[in-house]
Write a structure and sequence with these properties.
alpha+beta, 5 strands, 130 residues, globular, two-stranded antiparallel sheet
Length: 130
């Protein structure tokens, strides 16, 4: 059951939605939201609730110990696999045609249903390979 929609929660959700293409630490969020009066403890509290609701995914990148969060509540995330760069952390949607083909192939081959909204494939983006 969603929590009460507080100003802090709304500000955090708006920030996450605006930055859905990159993973963020709670500290990153605190720095960006400090001017709006949102404390680090409020961020952690809301992130926990948002995780429970399936709107935020907790992840690590490239074996690092830092914990990152990625917003998954956007409608466009529901039907796309995500690609995330180990080096810069940029996350973007795989094309719909490729996502559909890959998800169908996995289902056909292994009878396994992929959760597209919460699946992230890791590698190195074009910019970081240059």
């Amino acid at each position: 059951m969603p929590k009460y929609e507080t100003r802090q929660r709304k500000e955090l959700l708006d920030f996450l939605c605006d930055n859905a293409d990159r993973p963020l630490t709670a500290g990153d969020m605190a720095v960006s939201l400090k001017e709006k009066g949102i404390s680090l403890s409020a961020i952690y509290r809301n992130l926990s609730d948002l995780q429970d609701e399936g709107k935020v995914q907790r992840l690590t990148i490239g074996g690092k110990k830092r914990v990152y969060y990625r917003y998954t509540g956007a409608k466009e995330c529901e039907k796309h696999l995500h690609l995330s760069c180990f080096k810069c952390g940029h996350t973007f949607h795989m094309g719909a045609t490729t996502t559909d083909a890959l998800v169908k192939e996995v289902m056909s081959e292994s009878d396994f249903k992929v959760d597209s909204a919460n699946t992230v494939l890791y590698g190195v983006c074009k910019q970081c390979r240059k």
